Structure formats: structure tokens, C-alpha cells
């Protein structure tokens, strides 16, 4: 059984524990913090609201409104709705809104794969690169394997190996057997499918 220490960048770090439990909840993906988009949006909204409030307060104090606001009001009052510039700005605003909605409604942290939950208070995740490295090391232990490339996705693990001796079918069978156990030992919540391809080294010259 494993339990997390203090999280780093939102990803729990696993340590050994003596507890026990059974998987009772559906495991969901980790959510990205998205600090940069949030900071940019907050800065734009804060800056625009502050500038507008300052100009409104100045007008209330019997001062002249800023020239940009007068020009913008006059332009909006006289510009036709089918103007190319107006349509372009509207399209940009719609795309920005859709982008923000997508960010708000999707996890986005694709580099961390959720692991099986053996306790309701414990969440663990495994980095894709770490999973690929672990599987690669397992495949390199197979006799006849010269090199291995492993790509780990949410639903699929793709393995491409190069064998310099032994029949390719035998090597492929051994690699599949080893990596099938390896994928199971990763403890992922959603077990990905495994595809293995074994080739001979390319001839030079």
C-alpha cells in the first residue's frame, strides 16, 4: 500500500505505508493548475476594470472623459455590424471564450496517469516518462533485444524493439509477456492496451 507525501506541482509523491484498503471509487485524472492563463486573465480583467472605473470616477468629478473612451463610444455608435473589423473582433472574443471554457472544464494534466486507489483518502499519479522508462528497462532484459522505444499514452502503450539475434516472433512473444506484467505492476487505474513491434536493425550503406 502506498500513500503520498507533500505534493510537488500538484502531483502526489508515493512512499511506503502499512495501511490497507480496497478500490472503492472511480479514479479521475489530475487537474492542471493553469497558473499562467489564470494570471493573464486576471491581469487583463483587473487592468481594464481599473481603467474604466477611474474614467467613470473622473467624469463624476466633472472632469472630461478620456479620449479613448469617447472615440470608442463614437466608433461603436457609427460602425455597421457587418464591418470586417467588428466581425474579426467578435470572432476573436468567441474563440477566447471557448478556449477559457475548455480550460475550465477539462483536466489538462496529460503527463500524469492516475493510479489505482486502494484507499479513499489516497490519490497517486505516475508520470508518463517514468512509466515509459520503467517499461523500457524491463524490455531491455529480454534476450535478443538491442534497443527499445516506449511511448505511454492514456489508453495505449506502444513499444518498438530492435532485435539483432533470435527469431523475431520469439523476441516479440517474450517482450509482450514481460511488458504485460510490467504494465500491470505500474498500478494504473485504467490499464492501457499494449502493442509491440520487433524489427531487425537497419542496414547501413
**Portion in helices:** 40-55%
Strand proportion: 15-25%
Main-sheet strand order equals 5-6-7
- Could you list the spans in which at least 5 consecutive residues all have pLDDT below 50? 1-25
Largest sheet: 3 strands, mixed
Structural class label: alpha+beta
The end-to-end span amounts to: 53 Å
Report Rg: 28 Å
What overall form do the CA principal axes indicate? elongated
Number of alpha- plus pi-helical segments: 5
Number of strands: 7
Mean pLDDT over the residues: 81
Oligomer description: single chain
Topology:
Layout: E1 2-4, E2 14-16, H1 35-60, H2 67-78, H3 84-105, E3 112-114, E4 125-127, H4 128-140, E5 145-152, E6 156-163, H5 168-185, E7 193-199
Parallel strand pairs: 6-7
Antiparallel strand pairs: 1-2, 3-4, 5-6
Helix pairs in contact: 4-5
Amino acid at each position: 500500500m502506498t500513500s503520498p507525501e507533500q505534493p510537488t506541482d500538484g502531483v502526489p509523491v508515493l512512499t511506503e505505508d502499512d495501511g490497507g484498503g480496497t478500490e472503492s471509487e472511480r479514479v479521475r485524472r489530475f487537474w492542471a493548475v493553469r497558473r499562467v492563463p489564470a494570471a493573464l486573465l486576471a491581469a487583463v480583467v483587473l487592468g481594464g476594470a481599473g481603467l474604466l472605473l477611474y474614467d467613470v470616477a473622473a467624469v463624476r468629478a466633472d472632469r472630461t472623459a478620456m479620449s479613448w473612451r469617447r472615440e470608442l463610444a463614437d466608433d461603436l455608435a457609427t460602425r455597421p455590424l457587418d464591418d470586417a473589423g467588428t466581425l474579426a473582433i467578435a470572432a476573436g472574443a468567441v474563440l477566447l471564450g471557448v478556449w477559457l471554457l475548455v480550460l475550465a472544464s477539462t483536466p489538462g494534466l496529460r503527463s500524469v496517469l492516475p493510479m489505482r486507489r486502494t484507499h479513499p483518502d489516497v490519490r497517486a499519479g505516475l508520470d508518463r516518462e517514468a512509466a515509459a522508462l520503467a517499461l523500457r528497462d524491463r524490455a531491455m532484459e529480454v534476450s535478443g533485444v538491442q534497443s527499445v522505444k516506449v511511448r505511454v499514452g492514456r489508453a495505449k502503450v506502444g513499444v518498438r524493439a530492435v532485435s539483432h539475434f533470435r527469431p523475431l516472433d520469439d523476441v516479440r512473444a517474450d517482450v509482450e509477456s514481460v511488458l504485460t506484467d510490467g504494465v500491470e505492476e505500474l498500478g494504473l487505474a485504467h490499464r492501457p492496451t499494449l502493442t509491440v513491434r520487433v524489427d531487425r536493425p537497419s542496414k547501413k550503406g
